[in-house]
Write a structure and sequence with these properties.
Elements: E1 5-9, H1 13-25, E2 30-34, E3 46-49, E4 52-55, E5 61-62, H2 66-74, E6 81-82, E7 89-93, E8 96-99, E9 104-105, E10 108-109, H3 112-118, H4 123-131, H5 147-155, H6 157-172, H7 181-184, H8 186-195, H9 199-207, E11 220-223, H10 230-238, E12 241-243, E13 248-253, E14 258-262, E15 269-273, E16 275-278, H11 282-288, H12 294-301, E17 305-315, E18 325-328, E19 336-340, H13 342-345, E20 354-360, H14 366-369, H15 373-388, E21 396-407, H16 413-425, E22 430-432, H17 442-464
Parallel strand pairs: 1-2, 1-16, 2-12, 7-18, 16-22
Antiparallel strand pairs: 3-4, 5-11, 6-11, 7-8, 9-10, 13-14, 14-15, 17-20, 17-21, 18-19, 19-20
Helix pairs in contact: 1-10, 1-17, 2-17, 5-6, 8-9, 11-12, 12-16
Bound molecules: flavin-adenine dinucleotide.
Flavin-adenine dinucleotide (FAD) binds next to helix 1, strand 17, strand 21 and helix 17.
């Protein structure tokens, strides 16, 4: 494979992981990552608050899947792995904060006693959970369904609004009534698709096994220097080239491979490649694939995204509620959808300061973000007072905006992704990966990157024979 050139478009965790994998499998190939912005890392990014480097994008990765921890080990950061100090979170439900019930699957209760102990639900809602396993069984689910539709029909609005919505809001910045069951809870969807029956029973069966089993160790992990330190470690370990501040505008097929039109229109640069991995968000990928895989492009254009902002604060001498943070459902009437009590959640060195972050903006709430940073900080501070009783003047505050930051997995997303992959697979040497496909979390992005890397390696090897 000497002299073969593989270009990865997008230097987020997906693109960097794909580059690392290709380089490991084809040590003689020339692998280059092209990143449009000035920094690599995408949604893994460090910011500075009161002199401390903090994550202003992703801050925790699922430790129950192997890909994230595996990557950390591969790039020599294992000694930096940290586990949360506090894992119990709260949820704002019905106007007050309650412990997030244990034994739920993305908020779907699997144990009525645990739901009762939290205090987040009314007696009527608890009765409904208790009765659901004995109610008319669901027929096996033949089609995809919105999570909210299913939960409302089996367990009522309260469970959907007070528990499921805040959890889905936390992960996808999405709305339960719009998000696909198959895409967001594949194991539950598979079980209900096969057997139907009870929602509570199926959620119970799924949480009792594998990745959801509480006996399997900490659910989340991070890095002592922040998850935002992972991208640089990948590049240092990688053996691949990275160019930043180079936006790819289009990808074309040539007789021998691909031609990428890069850079600003007045100063175009043509880069040729034998294989291309597109690791950009859905809307950007749709533009890039217009010529080379138009059917995939059309499918990706329909993937919506939610914008949000992360506000990070440093306080001195404040009293916080216990635990790792608070989730807030859309019906509670706040712009803030989640608060992470960072210096309680992680073993951070903060020189006596209290660090916390609050995220604002769910799908469809762009209006909340259309204010300048000072106004956004004022809004969040006002809400923090009501949500966690913090009204102190911060020592420092930082706003990080993530326009279109999280793809929305709407109804039929899994089938849409299959169509995208089929259209891309018809173009030898082309592959896609990233948050738009099989999960927005870091391990899922890495898994999609490995799949894309393996596809282009196989394609190059087949072409070379
Ligand atoms: C605020 C926030 C908090 C999150 N928190 C967590 C968390 O705690 N845990 C977790 O697991 N997940 C979290 N996520 C989700 C996760 O971080 C992302 O899904 C994941 O990092 C996406 O990685 P990616 O490489 O696929 O895409 P991105 O990180 O979006 O990277 C894509 C890159 O492509 C570049 N690019 C775009 N267009 C072009 C072009 N035309 N030419 C060249 N380059 C281009 C972009 O500049 C970007 O750097 C969070 C997401 C957000 C927004």
């Amino acid at each position: 494979m000497a002299g073969r050139r593989i270009v990865v478009i997008g230097g987020g965790i997906s693109g960097l992981s794909a580059a690392l994998r290709v380089r490991a499998r084809l040590p003689d190939a020339d692998v280059t990552v092209l990143e449009g912005s000035a920094e690599i890392g995408g949604k893994l990014r460090l910011g500075t608050v009161a002199g401390f480097a903090v994550d202003v994008g992703a801050e925790a990765m699922l430790a129950r899947r192997p890909e994230g921890l595996g990557l950390v080990r591969d790039v020599g950061l294992e000694a930096d792995l940290i586990a949360p100090l506090a894992t119990s979170a709260q949820v704002r439900a019905g106007g007050a904060a309650h412990p997030l019930p244990t034994r739920t699957m993305m908020g779907i209760p699997t144990d009525v006693d645990a739901a009762r102990a939290s205090g987040a639900l009314s007696e009527q809602a608890l009765d409904r959970i208790a009765a659901e396993p004995g109610a008319d069984p669901l027929p096996p689910l033949e089609d995809d369904v919105a999570v909210g539709t299913l939960v409302r029909s089996r367990l009522g609005d309260e469970v959907a609004d007070r528990l499921v919505e805040p959890l889905l809001g936390g992960v996808y910045a999405g709305r339960a009534d719009d998000l696909s069951l198959r895409a967001t809870m594949p194991a539950l969807a598979a079980r209900l698709g096969r057997d139907g029956g009870s929602l509570v029973g199926a959620a119970q069966a799924v949480t009792d096994t594998g990745a959801h089993n509480p006996a399997a160790g900490p659910v989340f992990a991070s890095l002592a220097g922040g998850l935002g330190s992972l991208p640089a470690a990948l590049v240092a370990a990688g053996g691949f080239a990275v160019r930043t501040s180079i936006t790819v505008r289009s990808v074309r097929r040539t007789p021998s491979g691909f031609a990428l039109d890069c850079g600003p229109v007045p100063e175009p640069e043509l880069i040729e490649a034998d294989a291309v991995i597109v690791a950009t968000p859905a809307a950007k990928t749709a533009l890039l694939l217009r010529d080379v895989a138009p059917a995939a492009s059309a499918q990706l254009r329909a993937v919506d995204s939610a914008s949000m902002a992360i506000t990070t604060f440093a306080f001195r001498d404040v009293r916080l509620p216990e635990g790792s943070g608070l989730l807030v459902g859309a019906t509670e009437g706040f712009g803030v959808k989640a608060v992470t009590l960072s210096s309680q959640k992680w073993p951070l060195v903060t020189d006596g300061l209290t660090l916390l972050r609050a995220s604002v903006g769910r799908a469809g709430e762009n209006h909340l973000l259309q204010r300048d940073d000072d106004d956004l900080i004022a809004l969040v501070r006002h809400e923090l007072q009501a949500l966690i009783g913090v009204d102190a003047e911060p020592v420092d505050a930082l706003v990080t905006r993530w326009g279109g930051g999280l793809p929305q997995y709407g109804l039929g997303h899994v089938e849409r992704v299959a169509r995208v992959r089929a259209a891309v697979a018809a173009v030898p040497g082309l592959a896609v990966c990233g948050a738009a496909y099989d999960g927005v979390g870091i391990p899922a992005c890495i898994a999609s990157a490995h799949m894309a890397a393996d596809q282009v390696v196989a394609s190059l090897q087949a072409g070379g024979q």
